[in-house]
Design goal:
The protein is of the alpha+beta class and 396 residues long. The chain contains ten helices and eleven strands. It has two domains: 123 residues, Immunoglobulin-like (Sandwich), CATH 2.60.40; 231 residues, no CATH class.
């Protein structure tokens, strides 16, 4: 009986002595990311191209999992639960139960889809910076348990405000020059060949083609700066964007050439009408000077008076078609001699719709949309229709 009691006592003593070692071993095997920081100055704030250091508790366990079964698996950085591939990594030496991994934050073709939701769609609260959950894990696996968070800088405030100021200056100049000069207007018609003085206070009508060209240039400029501020990438112009800019530029150029040719033809026509009117008025003077008047003189005078009035009406009609004065922005871009015209409304509306799609794509995905050939063809058709209708139309 004594031997049995002694054996039980010894067993409990051995168990009690082994328990702390077992607990310690279990604690060593617990795998958890405990913290993350930027290597260098301002460790609590990180951005693209910085090096992020991730501290791991149970580091040896992580390394063992990465080499389990004789198959080596890469250790990946996880941000907001997303596996970030294509990042250079440095695996440090374990220090007791802990270790550290360092990743260089790069955006490339391999991880572009993972960076997009982290960088894009900036809202007011997290516009300049946003918090990120940080962890590590094996390739094509789940992130390990983590309590690490770090603030990620989307946009540098200084650069952002500098670009905003620059854009404000650009838009002030664009709007002011657009209102006060012919920057966004049809070319001014020279009336000197007609011996008519131009009204110095009259501004030419706005040109739909020039307005469209300025619109697309402004949208691309803002988008370029926005994406560059976040990604530091300036190789952004796609073939679709080149096509879009080319269509808008070609439309503006074509409209200017057509308007100039029409104005020259109208000037020549008015000159011919003026010469006819001079002849008629000279004939009238001669008829009225006949004394005594002949039997047909009164009829000849009446005929030439009516002819003179008709020529005056024709001259005024041609002058009205010379696009001499603005009627207001919307009236200028949407109307012709027949009032509001659908082909102008079509081009104006389609440009706005594509502009909204363009801006949303830039804001949400940080990419300039590469419009397909079909989309560009639609834009080209609306512009071509606008130019085609300009041949017979005259601005009221």
């Amino acid at each position: 009986m004594k031997n049995l009691i002694t054996a039980i006592f010894v067993m409990f003593a051995v168990t009690a002595m082994a328990a702390p070692d077992s607990t310690a071993a279990k604690s060593d095997s617990v795998l958890q990311v405990t913290s993350a920081y930027k290597v260098g100055s301002n460790p609590s704030q990180i951005e693209l191209f910085d090096i992020i250091a991730v501290k791991v508790k149970g580091f040896k366990t992580l390394l063992a999992k990465a080499n389990a079964g004789g198959i080596k698996r890469d250790i990946k950085l996880f941000l907001e639960g997303r596996q970030m591939d294509g990042l250079p990594v440095i695996i440090g030496e374990p220090h007791g139960n802990e270790g550290e991994l360092q990743f260089t934050l790069e955006r490339n073709k391999v991880n572009d889809a993972e960076w997009t939701p982290l960088l894009g769609s900036p809202e007011r609260k997290d516009f300049f910076a946003r918090p990120l959950d940080v962890s590590v894990g094996l390739d094509h696996s789940y992130p390990e348990s983590s309590t690490a968070r770090i603030s990620f800088t989307r946009i540098e405030r200084g650069w952002f405000y500098g670009c905003v100021i620059g854009l404000l200056v650009y838009f002030v100049v664009l709007i002011y020059a657009g209102k006060k000069s012919n920057l966004l207007r049809n070319p001014e018609v020279d009336l000197s060949p007609l011996n008519i003085a131009n009204n110095p206070n009259a501004l030419a009508p706005f040109s739909l083609g020039k307005v469209q060209m300025a619109f697309w240039f402004s949208v691309v400029l803002i988008s370029f700066l926005f994406i560059w501020l976040i990604t530091d990438n300036y190789d952004l112009i796609t073939p679709g964007i080149l096509g879009l800019i080319g269509i808008s530029g070609g439309t503006a150029l074509g409209a200017t050439v057509i308007d100039s040719n029409k104005n020259e033809e109208s000037i020549k026509k008015i000159l011919a009408l003026q010469q006819q009117q001079n002849t008629v008025q000279a004939t009238l003077s001669n008829l009225r000077a006949i004394n005594p008047p002949g039997p047909s003189t009164a009829g000849d005078i009446l005929y030439n008076v009516n002819l003179d009035q008709q020529l005056t009406s024709n001259i005024n009609h041609e002058l009205k078609g010379l696009q001499l004065q603005t009627k207001g922005f919307l009236n200028d871009v949407l109307t012709d001699a027949n009032g509001y015209n659908f082909h102008r409304l079509q081009m104006f509306t389609w440009t706005l719709v594509l502009g909204v799609v363009f801006i949303y794509s830039v804001w949400s995905a940080l990419t300039m949309p590469d419009f397909s050939s079909t989309m560009l063809a639609v834009q080209g058709l609306t512009s071509g229709t606008y130019l085609g209708f300009k041949f017979p139309e005259k601005q009221a």
